Amino acid sequence: MEFTTLLEGIVARMRTAPDKGRVADYIPELASVDPDQFGIALALADGRFFAAGDADTAFSIQSVSKVFTLALALGRLGDGLWHRVGREPSGLPFNSILQLEHEKGIPRNPFINAGALVVTDAILAGHQPREVLGEILRFVRAAADDEHIHIDEAVARSETDHGHRNMALAYFLAAHGNFVNSPELTCGTYFHQCAIEMTVRQLAMAGRFLVGGPGKPNLISRDSVRRINALMLTCGHYDGSGDFAYRVGLPGKSGVGGGILVIAPGRASIAVWSPGLNQHGNSALGTLAVEHLARETGWSIFG
Amino acid sequence: MEFTTLLEGIVARMRTAPDKGRVADYIPELASVDPDQFGIALALADGRFFAAGDADTAFSIQSVSKVFTLALALGRLGDGLWHRVGREPSGLPFNSILQLEHEKGIPRNPFINAGALVVTDAILAGHQPREVLGEILRFVRAAADDEHIHIDEAVARSETDHGHRNMALAYFLAAHGNFVNSPELTCGTYFHQCAIEMTVRQLAMAGRFLVGGPGKPNLISRDSVRRINALMLTCGHYDGSGDFAYRVGLPGKSGVGGGILVIAPGRASIAVWSPGLNQHGNSALGTLAVEHLARETGWSIFG
Amino acid sequence: MEFTTLLEGIVARMRTAPDKGRVADYIPELASVDPDQFGIALALADGRFFAAGDADTAFSIQSVSKVFTLALALGRLGDGLWHRVGREPSGLPFNSILQLEHEKGIPRNPFINAGALVVTDAILAGHQPREVLGEILRFVRAAADDEHIHIDEAVARSETDHGHRNMALAYFLAAHGNFVNSPELTCGTYFHQCAIEMTVRQLAMAGRFLVGGPGKPNLISRDSVRRINALMLTCGHYDGSGDFAYRVGLPGKSGVGGGILVIAPGRASIAVWSPGLNQHGNSALGTLAVEHLARETGWSIFG
Amino acid sequence: MEFTTLLEGIVARMRTAPDKGRVADYIPELASVDPDQFGIALALADGRFFAAGDADTAFSIQSVSKVFTLALALGRLGDGLWHRVGREPSGLPFNSILQLEHEKGIPRNPFINAGALVVTDAILAGHQPREVLGEILRFVRAAADDEHIHIDEAVARSETDHGHRNMALAYFLAAHGNFVNSPELTCGTYFHQCAIEMTVRQLAMAGRFLVGGPGKPNLISRDSVRRINALMLTCGHYDGSGDFAYRVGLPGKSGVGGGILVIAPGRASIAVWSPGLNQHGNSALGTLAVEHLARETGWSIFG
After folding, report:
1. Residue intervals in chain A for CATH 3.40.710.10
2. How far is D299 from chain C (nearest CA, A)?
3. Is A178 a known ligand-binding residue?
4. Nearest residue, CB atoms, D97 vs list A172, A174, A183
5. How far apart are CA A151 and CA A149, in angstroms?
6. Which family does it belong to (chains A, B, C, D) (predicted)?
7. Residues spanned by CATH 3.40.710.10 within chain B?
8. How far apart are CA A13 and CA A34, in angstroms?
9. What are phi and psi of A41, to 5 degrees?
10. Which residues of D are annotated as a binding site?
11. Of C33, C214, C188, C204, whose CA–CA distance to C117 is shortest?
């Protein structure tokens, strides 16, 4: 297969796609992003690398960061993490507080906001946010083999100013005794991790540790790789996870910045970015593009 | 790998497992099943076949039948089916009526009871239950290459007598205009499809059409194979689906009779049976056994 | 106070009211009712009686019948009834199935549909529907001192044909063991009790047993009078009960036929009817009219 | 009727009551209160006053304060308040966050915590907490005709330290745009208002403005009196409101400190206190005592 042609074809298709979705507008820094951008990158298990479109424009990775903090937390806490957060799809939007009330402060999974806050809270655990953010950045840089990845401070500040709902989730978790640090401290850390900026090139490189196989960054155990992929498949797109599994057939994690990291186990790490979101809060063109890529390559994990 | 040894080892392990779960007791026919039974069978993509334990004892496949009716419905209605039922995990028990009310009578997915009733209702669509049950049986027999598969009438009658909750779901769907036939007729058909009796040998054979690859029964398109596997992965174990994906890493569909059909795409169809259920209503030993099998074979779809 | 003038004034006001609501349309018999009708009647504790507007037109009392069956059930079962149904406002629409699932088949109160089905089921308790309907009619006729009150069979048949949601509730209650008779039998009885036809004259007369004081029909104990009035106040208008209490300040029970029975304890029984409904399913003009009446008479129970 | 004998009789009965409930233990200041205390006071509309038991021991009025802030807010904002908070019973515990999510940040009523936070936020509206707390105290002191009522600072501080759930509600309201001040500021004010200390003597005096009739403190309009009483009846005891209305038949507002203010419109203001709470968070003996009082006096508003 000629990957260059494939990616260029996808970029061309996306240019003329009828519905580019709506850019997230809850903070000015995201609302002002040009919606007509699209980039895609592919890091193959054999070491080859391909990219097309706006592959060198940095964007806010937002919830894609939850994959990296989960990897860190599993490495540090092991299965102990699962006392504080579940592994089931929630069937509800990313920021829902409903299930938390029914289930006594145990979030359904580590990829909804409440669960990701617990994961960050677990990593923070008495340390300074600065230290922990340094550790997260080191992990991402090592995964991507790129020292230039950093946090966009303006986005982080803006998240803090508009993060009332996440603060509500954090206080709710604290009220149920499922929080170690103060809501302000953990949310502050969380808002910064979400504000990490990356290009699709960097993100595809950073995803290689989840592809498995020889020569990949050996950051976590093979068991952890499988488990994170399983969680990405069942929970990575909130209440659009089942649809993504049905249409694409690969584990993925999206962010409201419009990025998606997709893993074809044993084959490739794929990053795609386009700022417009569909009704579930996942990149509209990004989803379409990886659906096309999966069909053309036959990389579905489902046969 | 020596599959005979592997399966015999699993059977031996399961004999001494500390917690065999609780046998379903909502109908006398299931409640009276001996809990100390365990069978496992493996139909490899290359045509080899292995079985161990109580592999020749027939059991009620119950919700595993939903896989076969979904395959039939997709073949007949194509994507039109998705106007009547969703593709998302529900995050709720198998027989919940909650989401139906919030979502105006569109069940979350075809594997919760409400969704399976819609699928059966769609296949029935004005035909006689007898005809449609004949069609379902022909499909299962063709898949298994076995003419001896039949319906246990005593179980079907007992389901009918105790099926108040499914009748409630059916009337609720009817109230929302998402039912073509009378609740009595569709539920009657559904109770019979759930009462199909099979051994793990027969079930493993019947699952081969979802394995893909050459030489398999070509009952549905490759796209449909992938999609059904995706739905089994995200929704096949109700509110235990995420946990099954995490621990086993393979698509599967369970039934309250204690059977589970598990697919290793491109590799094997696996059937396991043990009547005791865990808290999510899935076979306790069955889940444990396929978790062990997946770890030993490395067949996870997640890397 | 000159009640004739007051009622005529209310009738005149209602004629020019800007929003008459929407007539219930789930069965043809209700949908075809002329929305421009309005009647009001007042049976004072001292025996005087006043009426104005369309006071001699019979309408379907629908859920107002729940007051009479509750009175019958309390008389027969006493506090034992409260093992099967609660006494709390539900905060949800009249036909919701949500709380039933959370609360194991115990409806919140006897005035939501699920609760009223339990009440009718309790009265039925092995008897023939025909007998029990005779008993309900005898109670209503005795209360109203009027032998001409009867059931509209066409409405009852139509309810049966369109009663899927109530059938769903009944099967759900049966699934939780909170049903004595078959869902078909209890629902059949319930659909007939809802199809009782009355004029506002008859309904105001029939409500006198809840006014208390000397000379009223002595059908139930004073304790039961107080308790039924309390339930009407807190639960009589579904998720519009709080608003009715705030605006009118009197216990009342509405029906989708557009009738409302309102009690001013110690003072009067008030019946009002206008077929157009507001967003909570209660008569739009009826609510407005009794709000006006309560303000003019100062009959609020709240000071 | 001889009220002295009546109240003494109630005190004697309560001493031997088998179940005194459980003292609230979420803050140390409440947890350490002696559970064997019981006081009752009665301010009649004709000016007479009676008290018995521990009538001179001050307790934390907690949610009873919501009655006073609602009166203040209605006086200042009038019906505009109802754009920000509803008037329906919630059918859920006092601190539930569920309905907030379904209903876009509009709390069901002003007596659940979320609604009371909105009321306090509306009074605060840009002012300093100190000023507003002064205004609340002036209102309560004027109502009680007693300058000695004050805030227990130790309780207020402790509430602040343990108020995670209220902070969660406040941030959630802020996220929905239904908050004017910062969550910290409004919650701080709210925690102080809840920490007002009163005896049952003072509380019964302070409730007279809701009794109506000549010679009462004329702090709000008669319409507002009726409306606050209606809200107390339908929503004053959280998900135990229907039961209180059924058993007692009078408007009331409880607090987790064990106090209840009960209004017999036109007749009396009643205050009762005992620290042990029932399963709905309302004073166990307090509820029992007013049920007894209502039965003996025949003061039910329901006939």
Report:
1. 3-62+197-297, 64-196
2. 11
3. no
4. A172
5. 7
6. Belongs to the glutaminase family.
7. 3-62+197-297, 65-196
8. 18
9. -145, 155
10. 63, 113, 159, 166, 190, 238, 256
11. C188
Query: Do D175 and A168 make contact, defined as CB atoms within 8 angstroms?
Result: yes
The shortest CB-CB distance from A171 to any of D96, D101, D167 is to D167
Per-residue b or e along B16-40, where b marks 16 or more CB atoms closer than 10 Å to that residue's CB: eeeebbebbeebebbeebebebbbb
Strands of C66-169, DSSP E: 150-151
Identify residue B180 by its one-letter amino acid code: V
Tens place of pLDDT per residue across chain A (303 aa): 699 999 999 999 999 999 999 999 988 989 999 999 999 999 999 999 999 999 999 999 999 999 999 999 999 999 999 999 999 988 766 666 767 776 789 999 999 999 999 999 999 998 999 999 999 999 999 999 999 999 999 999 999 988 999 999 999 999 999 999 999 999 999 999 999 999 999 999 999 999 987 667 889 999 999 999 999 999 999 889 999 999 999 999 999 999 999 999 999 999 999 999 998 899 999 999 999 999 999 999 999
Interchain CB contact of C251 with B (< 8 Å): no
Burial of B52 (0-12, 13-18, 19+ CB in 10 A): buried
Spatial separation of the C-alpha atoms in residues C196 and C206, rounded to whole Å: 13
Which one, of C251, C97, C220, B263, lies nearest residue D245 by Cα?
A: C251
Distances (CA, A) of D234 to C224, C291, D244: 19, 17, 9
SS3 of residue C43 by DSSP:
strand
For the question of residue D63 being annotated catalytic, the response is yes
- B119: tokens are 């699928």
What was the ipTM of the complex prediction?
A: 0.94
Q: Do B98 and C96 touch (CB under 8 A)?
A: no
Distance from CA of D117 to the nearest CA of A (A): 14
Is the CATH number of domain D3-62+197-296 1.10.275.10? no
Active site annotation includes C104: no
E strand or H helix that includes residue B245: helix B241-247
Coil, helix or strand at residue C49? strand
pTM score of the predicted model: 0.93
A256 annotated binding-site participant: yes
B165 CB neighbours in chain C (<8 A) are 171-172, 175
How far is residue B7's CA from residue B5's CA, in Å, rounded to a whole number? 6
How far apart (Å, rounded) are the C-alpha atoms in residues C233 and D302? 9
Among chain A residues, CA nearest to B301: A301
Runs of H (alpha helix) within A32-128? 65-77, 98-102, 113-124
CATH of domain A3-62+197-297: 3.40.710.10
- Nearest residue to B139 (alpha-carbon basis) of B41, B62, B227, B220: B220
Does the annotation place C26 within a ligand binding site? no
Q: Which segments of chain D belong to CATH 3.40.710.10?
A: 3-62+197-296, 65-196
Tell me the shortest Cα–Cα distance from C16 to chain D, in angstroms: 25
pLDDT tens track for B168-205: 999 999 999 999 999 999 999 999 999 999 999 999 99
**Pairing state of beta strands D252-254 and D259-264?**
antiparallel
Name which of A27, A92, A96, A97 to mutate to probe chain D: the one with the most chain D Cβ atoms within 10 A of its Cβ.
Answer: A97
- Give the number of residues written for chain D: 303
C158 is in an annotated binding site: no
Identify the CATH class of B65-196. alpha beta
Of the candidates C99, C227, C241, the beta carbon closest to that of D246 is on C227
Q: Give CA–CA dist B279/D185, Å, rounded.
A: 45
| Fold classified for C84-196 | Probable Glutaminase Ybgj; Chain: A, domain 2 (1.10.1500)
Smallest Cβ–Cβ distance between A171 and the set D96, D101, D171 belongs to D171
The third-level CATH classification (topology) of the domain covering A64-196 is Beta-lactamase (3.40.710)
CA atoms within 13 A on the CB side of D147: 0
